[in-house]
Amino acid sequence: MKIVGYLEGTDSLLLTKLASQGIGVLPLGNGADNHGKYIGLITKADNIGIVVGYVHKVLPVPGRTLGPKDILFSCTTNKIPVILVSSEEDINDANNQLSDVKESVTIVPPEKLYDTIMQNLK
Predict the structure, then answer these.
(1) pLDDT tens, position by position, 48-82
(2) Angle, nearest 10°, between helix axes 113-121 and 12-20?
(3) 48: left (phi over 0), alpha (psi -120 to 50) or beta
(4) Is the pTM of this model over 0.90?
(5) Is the Cβ–Cβ distance between 102 and 92 less than 8 Å?
(6) Sheet holding 105-108, edge to edge
(7) Residue 74 burial (CB < 10 Å; 0-12/13-18/19+)?
């Protein structure tokens, strides 16, 4: 069974729907929010098939040195797809902010998140 790793703030009803369908869900933290396992420490042994969360969870905070490439390093190294959520009108700006990792990240509006997760888990 594949597991969906999720960053804090991910829609609880979506996570419940996935869990109800027998898909594991595992909380992940970005290093600043103390939410679940630190995303930088995930490995293939965690059996995470996809990571989901909101765009702001991987963007740099002014004055801090960690950026998207650092936060998502384990995902890109282990070839774990990352799906981030943004409003439709902010997707282009979000892509610009994620220039270092945009090849390994898909940004979708909230209403497309479930379908995108399911497509990637197949």
Answers:
(1) 999 999 999 998 778 777 889 999 999 999 999 99
(2) 40
(3) beta
(4) yes
(5) no
(6) 37-38, 24-29, 3-7, 48-54, 82-85, 105-108
(7) buried
